[in-house]
Structures are given as structure tokens and as C-alpha cells.
């Protein structure tokens, strides 16, 4: 569920383009107007504004933004105005071929995206930079880390929720035999399972592994692998369990201790604001007993702070009401429930009704789990 708030009455892209041009004119930049417009427009609206800006003023809006803004605010805004695939492609290019290589950021982007997102990302990367992302991965990464990323980019994994429990148990057994049962590690087995299986299947594999061997698969991965390869496997596993929880932890680490990892903070906020930021906010509040907005407010300042907080949205913890679908989502730890909750939001009413019944069946089967389930409005 996105955190982005757009005006209830659609605005004309032409008028937004004119207002932005006025904000850029004169001495200095009216950053408040720029934020009020661009931070409250969805992807389609932002692209239309860019088209209108070029048509009216014969200028590229992104170049004008780059010349008018500065620092972290500029970096965040330049990523935000891109469409999601071009944004991911740009982050990857900067991480793989920038002045400072950031293989962790590249690994996070690749291993936390769905197959359909990666398919579009690869096309955007080729169109934007004139080379294949696989070429840059091969050039910058090595060993098992390279093989994992290349496999994850290339293999078209299933994106649905159906899971074969028998196959999940077999994969759990194969991973145990490839790791904890033997001396040394068969990395190829880990790459095969982690790159070929859906997130729903990987969540089932993790449950089967713990049931069969009384040890979490995450601990096994930590014990058997290391470095960027291990980080990639853990990213896949944690996103399979809960993308929202994964990104909440990433945000917490970025703002923990002295200093702030602004590159990480910007990357997560701008890439998740239109996807699942409300879920991330709920997980953040549940785990760290403070709101994400409060954390960002304490670690940033100025227009940079204002822009990020505009994307994150106002705090609403516990229950989230989606006005467009009339659904309620209640925070719950149950893994299967989270999958259904994330799937429900964009669907039509009659489909949601069936999933509503399925969710409550899960709840009834797990009465010991804390707190409630779905409620239709």
C-alpha cells in the first residue's frame, strides 16, 4: 500500500508545469512549491508534467531540477521524477559503475524486486544506458555473488501464492544437505533454489527447514555463506517473508547511530513510496516503537526533510483504510496473512470478498496469533 497522497481533484499537468517554471525563476528556487507539486503526483502525472514542461518551455525538467536544487534534496528529487523502472535502472547504474561502487545497493535492488519488475528494469537499463545490466554485473561482481545476481535477473519466477508443500520440503532438504549437513558449502544448490523459486515458495521452504531441522534457514545461510553473496541470499529470504519488514530494518540501520546513510534512506523512500510504504511504516512502528516519520524528522533537515516526509506521509499506525478499495488492513505477524493483505489492496470488490473469507479462515485456524484480520467497509 502506497503512502503517496495526491489531490482529490486531478490537476492539469500543463498548470503544474507552469507553476514549476515560476518556482524556478528569479533569484533562488521556491522549493516549497516544487515539493508541493512533485511530491504529491503519481508516476503518470509526473511523466505528463515533464512532457508539458518540455513542450511549453523547450527545456528538460530533470535538468532544470538539477540546476536549481542541491545536496540530498536534489538527489532524492531527481530519482523521484523518474518512472519506477528507470529509477531502479539509474540506482543500479550508479551502484555498479559510479564513482563509488556500492555492490550492496545493487544486490538489494535486484534481489528485492519481482520478476516482472526486473524484466522492465532490464529493458529500461538498456534503453537508458546503451548496455545490458548483465554486462555491468559481470564486470563489477565476481564468484557466487555474480552467479546469483545473473540467475536472479534471468530466471522468470512464478509470482503467485500457490505453494507445493512437498516441493518446499524437498528444497529444504537439498539446502540442508548443501550446507549444514556437509563439510563446506555447495553454493550452486543455494543459487538454484533461491533464484528459481517464488517468494511464496521460499517462505514455505523456510518454514519447512525450521520444522525439519529445528533451526532457521536464515541462521543456516548466515553460517554457510558470507559477503555480498550471503547478503543477496538473505535479501531474497527476508523479502519472501515480508518485504515491509525487510525495508523497515534497512531504514532503521540507515538512521542508527552517528550519522545517516542518506543514499540508503533516499533509495528506500523514493522506491517504496508508491508500493508498500504504509506497510513499512507499520512494521517500523511495531519493531522500534516510534514512527518512521519521527525517525526521518530527527535525522534530516530543511527541504530534504520536507520532501522525504511528504513521500512517507502522515503517521497512521495499526489500521490502514484504503479509500479506493474500501478495505481495512490490520497489522499481523502471520506470514500467510501478510501475503493476502498485500495482494488484496488493488483488486476488485468481488475478488477481495473471496480473499477476505480466505484470510479469516487463516485467522480461525491460528487463534493463538495476536490481533485481528480483515474487515470490509
Automatic annotation (TrEMBL):
One term under GO cellular component: plasma membrane
PROSITE patterns: ANNEXIN_1, ANNEXIN_2
Keywords for this protein: Annexin, Calcium, Calcium/phospholipid-binding, Metal-binding, Repeat
GO molecular function, one term: calcium ion binding
UniProt entry tagged with the keyword Transmembrane helix: no
Biological process terms in GO annotation: response to cold; response to heat; response to salt stress; response to water deprivation
Gene3D superfamilies: Annexin
Signal peptide (residue range): none
Note on domains (UniProt): A pair of annexin repeats may form one binding site for calcium and phospholipid.
Family from the record: Belongs to the annexin family.
Protein name: Annexin
Gene that produces this protein: ga20983
Amino acid at each position: 500500500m502506497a503512502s503517496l497522497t495526491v489531490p482529490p481533484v486531478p490537476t492539469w499537468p500543463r498548470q503544474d508545469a507552469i507553476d514549476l517554471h515560476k518556482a524556478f525563476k528569479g533569484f533562488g528556487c521556491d522549493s516549497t512549491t516544487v515539493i508541493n507539486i512533485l511530491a504529491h503526483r503519481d508516476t503518470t502525472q509526473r511523466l505528463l508534467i515533464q512532457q508539458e514542461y518540455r513542450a511549453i518551455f523547450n527545456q528538460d525538467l530533470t535538468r532544470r531540477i538539477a540546476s536549481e536544487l542541491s545536496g540530498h534534496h536534489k538527489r532524492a528529487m531527481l530519482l523521484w521524477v523518474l518512472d519506477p523502472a528507470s529509477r531502479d535502472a539509474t540506482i543500479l547504474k550508479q551502484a555498479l559503475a559510479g564513482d563509488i561502487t556500492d555492490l550492496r545497493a545493487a544486490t538489494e535492488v535486484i534481489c528485492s524486486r519481482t520478476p516482472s519488475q526486473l524484466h522492465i528494469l532490464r529493458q529500461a537499463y538498456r534503453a537508458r544506458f546503451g548496455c545490458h545490466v548483465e554486462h555491468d554485473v559481470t564486470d563489477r561482481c565476481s564468484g557466487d555473488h555474480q552467479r546469483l545476481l545473473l540467475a536472479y535477473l534471468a530466471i522468470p519466477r512464478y509470482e503467485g501464492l500457490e505453494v507445493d508443500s512437498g516441493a518446499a520440503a524437498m528444497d529444504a532438504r537439498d539446502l540442508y544437505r548443501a550446507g549444514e549437513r556437509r563439510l563446506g558449502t555447495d553454493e550452486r544448490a543455494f543459487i538454484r533454489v533461491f533464484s528459481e523459486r517464488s517468494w511464496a515458495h521460499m517462505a514455505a521452504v523456510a518454514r519447512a527447514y525450521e520444522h525439519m531441522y529445528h533451526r532457521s534457514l536464515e541462521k543456516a545461510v548466515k553460517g554457510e555463506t558470507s559477503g555480498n553473496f550471503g547478503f543477496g541470499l538473505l535479501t531474497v529470504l527476508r523479502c519472501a517473508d515480508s518485504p515491509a519488514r525487510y525495508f523497515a530494518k534497512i531504514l532503521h540501520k540507515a538512521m542508527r547511530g552517528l550519522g545517516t546513510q542518506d543514499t540508503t534512506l533516499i533509495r528506500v523512500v523514493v522506491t517504496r513510496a508508491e508500493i508498500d510504504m504504509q506497510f513499512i511504516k507499520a512494521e517500523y512502528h511495531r519493531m522500534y516503537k516510534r514512527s518512521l516519520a519521527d525517525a526521518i524528522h530527527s535525522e534530516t533537515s530543511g527541504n530534504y526533510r520536507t520532501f522525504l516526509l511528504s513521500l512517507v506521509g502522515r503517521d497512521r499506525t495499526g489500521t490502514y483504510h484504503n479509500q479506493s478499495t474500501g478495505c481495512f488492513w490490520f497489522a499481523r505477524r502471520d506470514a500467510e496473512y501478510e501475503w493476502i493483505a498485500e495482494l488484496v489492496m488493488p483488486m476488485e470488490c468481488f475478488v477481495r470478498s473471496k480473499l477476505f473469507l480466505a484470510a479469516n479462515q487463516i485467522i480461525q485456524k491460528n487463534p493463538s496469533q495476536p490481533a485481528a484480520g480483515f474487515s470490509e467497509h
